[in-house]
From TrEMBL:
The keyword Signal does not apply. It comes from the Bacteria. The keyword Transcription applies. It comes from Nocardia suismassiliense. Residues 15-75 form the HTH tetR-type domain. Coiled coil: none annotated. InterPro entries: Homeodomain-like_sf (IPR009057), HTH_TetR (IPR001647), Tet_transcr_reg_TetR-rel_C_sf (IPR036271), TetR_C (IPR011075). This is TetR/AcrR family transcriptional regulator. It holds the Pfam family TetR_C_13. Keywords: DNA-binding, Transcription, Transcription regulation. SUPFAM superfamilies: Homeodomain-like, Tetracyclin repressor-like, C-terminal domain. Residues 38-57 bind DNA.
Length: 214
């Protein structure tokens, strides 16, 4: 039998505590935004002391950056990975929008979407938090462009399709689903976002039969 060092229970507990705090921050920020959150509010929501927070993160900005990374991981697990199970190309684009709407309608976060909240909040605030949000927005855009180019290369999209325009439309319809669901009629907003995206993809598609009829 191979001798192994005992598991570090304190480290495991620390990791669980860190994850619990970050989940609380992501949840709160989807409603309040990151800038408005105080360390006291976060501590109360997560059930830890303020001193405990400062033992994990030196200041509020460091906590904000960590929360962004936690939200990125959550998005990857719940939206990106399920979509990648679909066949490459147009059907993967459709699956991406469906997974995004499932994340929203499943009420994973009380505000609907962490990134919609923080992008609106930090679009005009220079600094490390905005820089990271911008980098992730570019990463998402590049990911969507890659799927679109795969669809073009496979002949699934009409050859005059502009990848930038289609990527913009996909993102805009997802973004609008959140804002309209918070201000207008929730179920109608998500149903309209789904119908609009399907209609646009079918219009771009060289063989619309590979997509659902409705």
């Amino acid at each position: 039998m191979t001798n192994r060092p005992p598991a570090d229970g304190r480290r495991a507990r620390g990791d669980r505590s860190r994850t619990a705090v970050l989940d609380a921050v992501v949840s709160l920020a989807s409603v309040e935004g990151l800038g408005a959150l105080s360390m006291g509010q976060v501590a109360a929501e997560a059930g830890v002391s303020k001193s405990g927070l400062f033992s994990l993160w030196r200041d509020k900005e460091e906590l904000q950056l960590a929360a962004i990374e936690r939200a990125r991981l959550q998005w990857a697990e719940r939206v990106v990975q399920p979509a990648l199970q679909a066949p490459a190309g147009v059907r993967q684009l459709w699956a991406l929008h469906e997974a995004r709407l499932a994340f929203y309608t499943g009420r994973v976060l009380p505000g609907g979407c962490f990134f919609v909240a923080v992008q609106h909040e930090f679009d005009d605030r220079p600094g490390p938090v905005r820089d990271r949000i911008v980098n992730l927005a570019r990463e998402w855009d590049a990911f969507v462009h890659k799927i679109i180019r795969t669809a073009l290369d496979a002949g699934q999209l009409q050859q005059d399709t502009d990848p930038g325009v289609l990527a913009f439309e996909l993102d805009a319809l997802g973004y609008a689903a959140i804002t309209r669901s918070r201000l207008l009629e929730r179920d109608a907003a998500f149903a309209q976002s789904r119908a609009a995206m399907l209609w646009r993809l079918r219009a771009y598609c060289s063989d619309p039969s590979i997509l659902p009829a409705a």
